[in-house]
Amino acid sequence: MGTRHLTAVFLDGKYHVAQYGQWDGYPEGAGQNCLNFARAIAEKSARAKFADKVRKCSWATQKYINNKTSHENWQKDYPELSRDTGSDILKIINDSDRKIKLVNELEFAADGVFCEWAWVIDLDSNTFEGFKGLNNQPLSKGDRFKFLETGDKEEFYPARLITKWELDNLPTDEEFLASFKEVTENVN
To answer: The pTM is what?
Structure first.
């Protein structure tokens, strides 16, 4: 289902991954996928390996994107540039032996209408965080995406944190989905 979202990785005081996803961004989809990935890197050695690979990622220029996406099989050869990849970007980075160029879609978290969910793995604080879009309240100082607010009175604001977990103490699937139950019921 077309549920747009953002998958991000924060490391060394900055975002190295900010992947837009077109499909299945809700908790049972991309959220569960990110949770499963967070479980896979819960062990410190796996987390360190992933962090090293994340550090090798860089932002692609528009010229690079246009060049790579101009041939017929670009989505197969460069899935990291596709909106269809979504949260699978985490596994692509972790499994890759090459440096990966990514599209920086971080500002999508500010689109209060179209960014329905955001999932962030923060390797600096060792947390996994879930955010909900369709937020009609300004963010507080210190909120992750506060810097994306324009300062104007807006109808919708950047995605708001719903909950976060330590990577060393991740929830069960049931606990994870239950933490979003109230916000998903209020939207439907």
So the answer is: 0.93
Kindly give the pairing relationship between strand 117-122 and strand 5-11: parallel
- Closest by CA to 17, choosing from 97, 65, 86, is 86
Judge whether residue 63 has pLDDT over 70. yes
For residue 183, what are its two tokens?
């916000």
List pLDDT tens digits, range 92-149: 999 999 899 999 999 999 987 899 999 999 999 999 999 999 888 889 999 999 999 8
94 CB-contact burial (10 Å; exposed 0-12 / middle 13-18 / buried 19+): middle
* DSSP per position, the chain: ----EEEEEEETTEEEEEEEE-S--SIIIIIHHHHHHHHHT-SHHHHHHHHHHHHT-EEPPHHHHHHHTTSTTHHHH-GGG-TTTGGGHHHHHHH-SS--EE---GGGGG-TTT--EEEEEETTTTEEEEEES-B-SPPPTT-TTGGG--SS--SSBS-EEEEEEETTSPPPHHHHHHHHHHHHHHH-
Structure tokens at 127: 């947390």
User: Using CA atoms, how far apart are residues 68 and 159, in angstroms rounded to an integer?
Assistant: 31
Residue 48 has pLDDT above 60, yes or no: yes
